[in-house]
Automatic annotation (TrEMBL):
Protein name: Cutinase family protein
Gene3D superfamilies assigned: alpha/beta hydrolase
Organism for this UniProt entry: Rhodococcus tibetensis
Lineage: Bacteria, Bacillati, Actinomycetota, Actinomycetes, Mycobacteriales
InterPro entries (alphabetical): AB_hydrolase_fold (IPR029058), Cutinase/axe (IPR000675)
Keywords, sorted A to Z: Disulfide bond, Hydrolase, Serine esterase, Signal
Similarity comment: Belongs to the cutinase family.
One Pfam family per UniProt: Cutinase
Domain of life from the UniProt record: Bacteria
Signal peptide range: 1-19
Amino acid sequence: MKNRFLAYTLAALSIAAGAAMVPGAVASAAPCSDVDVSFARGTGELPGLGITGGPFVNSLTSQLSGRSVSTYPVDYAADFSQYSAGPGSRDLVNHVTSVAAACPATQFVIGGYSQGATVVSNAVGLRTPSSATGAVLPAAVAERIKAVVVFGNPLGLQGRTIENASGTYGPRATSYCNFGDPVCQIGGFNSFAHLTYAINGKTTQGAAFAAAQIGA
């Protein structure tokens, strides 16, 4: 019930904020950008980057001034069952591999929030209940994925993060889990902690981390 309440709240916030229309939240028309940023929204959010992905992408784009940045909102259902994360990872993998093939100089940032973080976890090869229907990024593109940034990742309920569970992507990953967030913290007690990544500085911090990885 707690996760369903959060999902309904996310949907309401998404509608109220017009999250699907965040400036900079639509995919760039440029055929090949310097940096391609993919982000998977949370459960129940409207299609688009979502209440966390929009601010994250906007901040990252501003921190990468002088470079062209394309953005891609992962196309998946983000439904209440959580099992849509598997198909979400397939869409993310398909996007990255197709852009990588067409644009050999493009670097990638991938991110996700809530169920969207599960999409990312599946894509980097970490098993979750939905990974059986998912896909994993091929080794051929791994070095071009410069940063992995997730917020409120349910993987935390298993005592894991991408940083400590992935030998390939861990050094390029960062995870944000607000204190008390029951979606990512064992014993989490504050449902509203899951909703504040965009207003407590975490999306800006995540963008700074990704920008530094791109610049490294």
